[in-house]
Amino acid sequence: MKQWMRIARELILVLLLTACVLAVCVFRYLPVFGQAESYRFYLGASSSARSFASESPLIDKLTAERVAGESAEYGGDRYAELKELFRARLLFREESCGVVNYYLYSPCLGDCVYLNGYAVNLHIAVEKSGERTAAGTPLIFGGY
Asked: Distance between CA 41 and CA 27 in Å, rounded?
């Protein structure tokens, strides 16, 4: 009987470890930005090579090949909230055509691109009116 209990405990341990490994693999593929009004993935060796809009970010990220970047759009000014969420540090900002672009580095995010000598992996663009925010990693490609 003791041998069966030991085998059962070892089997449970193996199942728990397998579940943990699977959870880590799935979490790796979760979309970076949550509860967005729209979502876009950038594919290929360069994040600006090809992109597509996504209605189901989790499924699309799991099935897409070589996701090199992501972006999302939100209503309102979400700069402070996103900066805090990703524990990001502001590197520099630019203003153009009624949009304020914030370039940041976050220890929570992966790959970066180099702009003005800085390693940037979070780009947040906010309309000066405060009506819309776009966030992208490593950058927002295309137009905003």
From this structure: 17
